[in-house]
Amino acid sequence: MMKRALGLAALLCLLVLAGWWLAPRLLGPPSYVFLHLIESNTHGLARLPAGEFPAAAHFHADTGALWVPAAVGRKTPVLLLYELDSLGLRTYARLQGLRPGATVRLAEPRSWRGGPGGSEVIADGERLFRSDLSLQRVERDGTVHLEAGGGRVKLAPGQGWSWAVLEPGGRPVEAMPGPAWEQAVREAFAANRPLSRLTVVNYGRWDWSRVKVGEPR
Amino acid sequence: MKRALLILILALAVPAVRPAAAAPRYPVILVAPPGATTWGQPRDGRAPSGLYRRLLQAGYVSGRTLFVFEHPGGAGADPRSGAAPLSRLVAQARVAAGSERAQLVGYSSGGLTVCHYLKGYARDHIHTAVLAATPVGGSFLATYYRVQWEVMRQEAAFRGGFPWLSSPEIPRAARSGAFPAFPDAGSYVAARAHLVYAPLYGEYVLESRWLNLPGRQATAPSFEAWLARFRPQLFAEYLLTAAEVPSTWVAAGETSRSFYEFMALQTGRRLYLVKRTGLSDLLLHVFSDGYLPASWEDALRHYGIRLLEVLGGHLLHAGRAALTSTFLEGMGELAGFSPEGPALHQVLQTTVPLTGVPRSDGAPGRVSVPVNAGLQRWHQWRREGGGPRLVVLGSRLPNLWQPLIPTAGPNDLAVEVEAMLPPPGPEDTIRIWTGTWGPNHLTLLGRADVQEFIVRELTRRVEPARTHRPLAARTPAETWSWQEAGRVRVSSWHPTQIRITSERLAGVRGELVVEFQLPELPAGWDWLLGGGDRQMSAGAGRVRFPLGVMDNEAVVGVRPAPREGTAGLSSELVKDVSYQVRFTVDSVADAASPPPVPRPDPIRVVRTTKRTTQRHAARTYHQRWIWDLGDGTLLESDDPERTSMLVEHRYARPGSYTVQATAYDNHGRVIRHLTWEHQVEGTDTHRFFAQSIVEPEVSVTVKGPRTWVTGRPAVFRVAVQVSEVPGVHREVVSIDPAPSFEVWWERPGRFTVQAAATVRITYEFPERRVTVHNTYVGSVSVEVLAPVITD
């Protein structure tokens, strides 16, 4: 009798442990880390579009709500909103899930025809980044470890990082933001030289329950 | 066989016998642009032609069911001023045809006369309004592309091509937003785009995309949001204004200044992008020859040919660059629209939506900036289920032949979709002719298919479910009157305005009289009465407004002012003034219908002051006791809290004593005076008791938002609590400015909203009744912000 009770208790414990182990694997983690990656170019327009590329997601930093046009899979630990803009016009946007080890290919061609029957809007040749951005590791508190352009970056929640290239094949500008960066940008603007900038912002960890489908309210 | 052939020839040669046209149900009035004769009516012995002839064929009879309105002002007259004479012709036509309603056909700016008639007069008298190529500013995009032509002209101007644009006055006027310097909307918008918004867009790109710090604000704001945040004055003054544009512009009165400012903003952004990305080669080539055209026709011919030349060259050698040029791209975009499709309605804007504007609760919200008053009015009529049936004709064409026609203006060259009014109701018809060979503005009415279409629409048996008043129930000249009285406190420091506004005043003609009961002023002071820019006669406290059919508002200012040259009168003088507003309609002959309900619509009286109340706290309360006990003993108490007093006194010797107790208020006035004739026989202690007034506790609380934005009404409510005091009657007699009132702010800052409550307190004493009126002021501090967009 005693043996049977012990066996039952052990079985129950085993079931609880199995559930505890399986739940995150089956259902995914309860929260995700939100990364915003913006690639800006000064010469990335092949022609003028009628408007902007539609937003892939709207993130409200004050409430933590992420509005997405369609449901997203909840098994990835990181959601990355990648946006490409040129002179203030968004020309491409995509929301993608990332797992450690995943790579965002910055040199990958992007295409937007600006509407049915239109010609290509994005001038891929003027996008200066030729390397990849990869997600190395995600810590429990939401800190992410990235690798880009041969360098490693650790971004705690709330931190951002920028990397810029002043001309094709040019070296990345390290000291940004700062007076040197501002002077370099102003000079490049005045001389109409191509310029690309990559900015990554780690918005930290957010509950999946705050991901909402539809138009932001 | 021969016989059969003969019959066939006869059948082809003899016109078909048509059945007699049914008598038209409603008379038709054709409204041409001022000074134009468009319709083909018989003149100088010539036979009728064009649309006029087709209408005759359809059964209309000249002078009975077919009328032509000719603007009495002739060529160059303001189309809006034709509304009143048109109303007389409508009345005449309805009587002549014995019909309750008429139909109007407006062409080009004649359609604006129709619109203004519908706005100011009885629109229920109109069954169908046909607007053919009427520039009501219905299409933001259409006007936008027309502006592109001006942009190209000004590109040349700033390179020294056009002397009038090259003068230093124009850039100055463009930067300050001065309308009168510009002959039309296109030149204004293009100049603003060149000189204000394109450079600002450059600053925006640099600052928001390249020099901002990476962090939580990495998401760059939109250009509009950036302007709202970093150029709040420009944003509030130019982009968030519903002010109407100058009357010299064609679409005056229909579009607001915001319409053109947003257009300038978009044009400026595009201009910057074109220049920055090197996409403007085609335009620069076209205008880089420094040619000085003598006239429009010359400019069009020259640059049209240049355009074709350069275009050809580009097509051969750099076709891609040519196809992506701004100008052709605009046309290509338009070619993708279909009249019934959703894409077209997207470009018909009455408002420009802005997101991220803080709401009253601080959360980001959305606002719509009204940009087209005319279209909004149609929207409202549709919502109310009223307004005539609408038929709109336009053409939309990338008409490549137009540059070769010298009489064509840029409007015809680019686009003609501006005559549309959204949203079409179930009985409305919108017809747009499209294609390279389609009609343009000048040839639209000359086409047989267009004429047939108009006749078909006019004779269609459509009975819109509109409310209208039967003709028999109307009297030719009805009168009604309305009056309202009020009281306002005015100050010499802050002129007080009384704004009388009501939809009910619109559409009728009459006289508004504001009569003031002005109190006496001290020597050296005079009453000043005035009112904005309106003509009025100011007699002894009386202001008269002759209100026209277009007016629905009157403003009167009243203020005591020191006479000029009078010294030493710098202190504030505050007076209460009673007023009575009286409005009498002297004629509604074919104007708007008389009031549909016996009770008049609310007429709002708004006071425009820097203070919500001019009243100050004013209390009367007990301050002081003085007792005379009759034996030379005087007692004095200066404690306002001591509203009752018990005095114990021992007299030194017996006798008759007169005891007096006097209570004074805080102004030094006697509240009570009590006297006792007291007989003293021994050496006992004698007690005397007297009671003064006891002021109840009064609290005035102003409830309303603590944070607000400029340009929108904030509602405040006043709560007054008066504590109970036994034997004292209390009554709140007035709350100033009102128990519930709205406040608008014109500029941001921290302001105090005050309200005053006057309480009548009555104290019953055996010998007299004391009544005091105390005023208590409550306030709330409000932080007012300019509407700022946040992402």
List keywords for this structure.
heterodimer; A: 217 residues; alpha+beta; 6-stranded mixed sheet; 4-stranded antiparallel sheet; elongated; B: 791 residues; Rossmann fold; Jelly Rolls; 5 domains; 6-stranded parallel sheet
Q: How large a portion of the residues of chain A is in β-strands, by DSSP E?
A: 35-45%
Number of distinct beta strands of chain A? 13
Give the neighbour order of strands across the main sheet of chain B: 2-1-3-4-7-8
**Whole-angstrom Rg of chain B:** 37 Å
Q: End-to-end span of chain B in angstroms? A: 85 Å
Shape of chain B: elongated
Instruction: Write down how many β-strands of chain B occur, each being a DSSP E stretch of 2 or more residues.
Output: 30
**Average pLDDT score of chain A:** 81
As for the number of domains of chain A, it is 1
Q: Runs of chain B with pLDDT <50, length 5+?
A: 5-21, 159-164, 280-285, 313-371, 397-422, 464-478, 532-539, 587-603
Share of helix among residues of chain A?
A: 10-25%
Mean of all residue-level pLDDT scores of chain B: 68
Walk me through this protein's architecture.
The complex is a heterodimer of chains A (217) and B (791). By secondary structure, chain A is an alpha+beta fold. Chain A has one domain (29-213). Chain A contains two helices and 13 strands, in the order αβββββββββββαββ. Chain A has helices at residues 2-27, 179-190; strands at residues 31-41, 58-60, 65-68, 78-86, 89-98, 103-105, 132-138, 144-148, 151-155, 160-165, 172-173, 196-207, 211-213. In chain A, the strands form three sheets. A six-stranded mixed β-sheet of chain A has the order 5-4-1-12-10-11, with no helix packed on it. Chain A has a four-stranded antiparallel β-sheet with strand order 6-7-8-9, with no helix packed on it. In chain A, a hairpin with a 4-residue loop joins β2 (58-60) and β3. By secondary structure, chain B is of the alpha+beta class. Chain B folds into five domains: 22-136 and 372-472, Alpha/Beta hydrolase fold, catalytic domain (Rossmann fold); 140-280 and 325-331 and 349-366, no CATH class; 475-588, Jelly Rolls (Sandwich), CATH 2.60.120; 622-691, Immunoglobulin-like (Sandwich); 698-785, Immunoglobulin-like. Helix content of chain B is 28%, strand content 29%. In chain B, the strands form eight sheets. Chain B has a six-stranded parallel β-sheet, with helices on both faces. In chain B, strands 9-16-11-14-13 form a five-stranded antiparallel β-sheet, with no helix packed on it. In chain B, strands 12-15-10-17 form a four-stranded antiparallel β-sheet, with no helix packed on it. In chain B, a hairpin with a 5-residue loop joins β5 (351-358) and β6 (364-370). In chain B, α5 (140-157) packs across α8 (185-210). The longest helix of chain B is centred in the middle third of the chain and has 28 residues, at 296-323. The N and C termini of chain B lie far apart (85 Å). The chains are: A alpha+beta (217), B alpha+beta (791). The interface between A and B is medium-sized, with 38 and 32 residues.
